[in-house]
MBL fold metallo-hydrolase (Aquirufa esocilacus), 256 residues
Amino acid sequence: MSPSKVTFLGTGTSQGIPMIACNCSVCTSTDERDKRLRVSIQVEIGGKSFIIDTGPDFRQQVLRAGVKRVDAILYTHEHKDHTAGMDDVRGFNYHQQSTIPLYARAQVIEQLKREFAYAFGENKYPGVPEIDVYEIDGQPFTVQGIDIQPIFVKHYYLDVLGFRFGDFAYVTDANFIAPEEQDKLRNLDVLVINALRKTTHISHFTLAEALDLIAELKPKQAYITHISHQMGLHAEVQKELPSNVSLAYDGLVLTL
Ligand SMILES: [Zn+2]
Ligand SMILES: [Zn+2]
Ligand SMILES: [Zn+2]
């Protein structure tokens, strides 16, 4: 099954755009598409609402997008810009009167336990996040009847998971994808892939590297995310892209 709707909750790199104290043309742009919170998406599929990553902007993002329900949260990796907002699942605990299931690799779960120790203890203080944690790795898994294919990608030396739901896939924080993992990203309607900027970076694809990968994988449509202010102005970079590639922006909704 493929998603019916995907909402980009955030499309910015770890610092977000504008960056604190930066006066560059992107950080001071009045184009709303140049304002990027930390990366996250909502995937609506089979009547379920999944969130991928809960960065530091999670609360603001779900309020802004009008997210009323979360059935599960999937984590790509343990970096703070993808995990820092987990505490705010409390709002959904309260609204739904239920725990929220989290799906992550073992090392991500270990980090969540360190950083949110109060949510995992024996005698929990009332009002802490109510979560159920499920370990995943490279094997396909099913969440509430929805089949999900993880894709292992490399983020410098760190292993990160991308996720494929039917003909839609989301890959953030990567600068290398092994051939056998690339094979899991073929025949897609939509591929979301990260590209930080135009110049080389130790742990993220450049725009050119992402475009090469898109040309190899041939999704019908591709969207770029995890964007730095160094990428340039949205409107100008967009003009340079092939017709089937777009820069994502915060608030972009794909109806599939
Ligand atoms: Zn990141
Ligand atoms: Zn800037
Ligand atoms: Zn990262």
In short: The helical segments are 58-65, 80-83, 90-96, 106-115, 179-182, 207-217, 234-239. The pocket of zinc ion (ligand 3) is lined by residues 77, 79, 155, 173 (CB under 6 Å). The first strand starts at residue 5 and ends at 10. The mean pLDDT is 98.
